[in-house]
Specification:
The chain has 86 residues and is an all-alpha fold. α2 packs across α3.
């Protein structure tokens, strides 16, 4: 697998981003996925909906529990940044 990533020019950050984007599109991450990747997948699901059709569209097509997940993921991300700066 490492050889495939190297040939494709993917570093670890690209792999993490791609996993999160895939999980966001699928709507669920496999059990055992690191929490940061899961949280990123929730944000990307909402973000990609908004980029595809605007904020109203994103709110319309994502169920309330998915909107809550995206909000919680943003809080998680902001908290992580604050903790890292301390």
């Amino acid at each position: 697998m490492e050889e495939v990533r190297r040939r494709a020019g993917l570093d670890e950050l690209h792999v993490i981003w791609n996993h999160a984007a895939d999980y966001g599109a699928d709507g669920e991450a496999p059990e055992g996925t690191p929490r940061g990747i899961v949280q990123l997948s929730y944000l990307l699901r909402f973000y990609n909906s908004a980029m595809g059709g605007g904020l109203g569209f994103a709110v319309e097509v994502n169920e309330p529990f998915r909107l809550k997940r995206a909000m919680d993921a943003m809080r998680y991300r902001i908290g992580s940044t604050r903790r890292a700066r301390s």
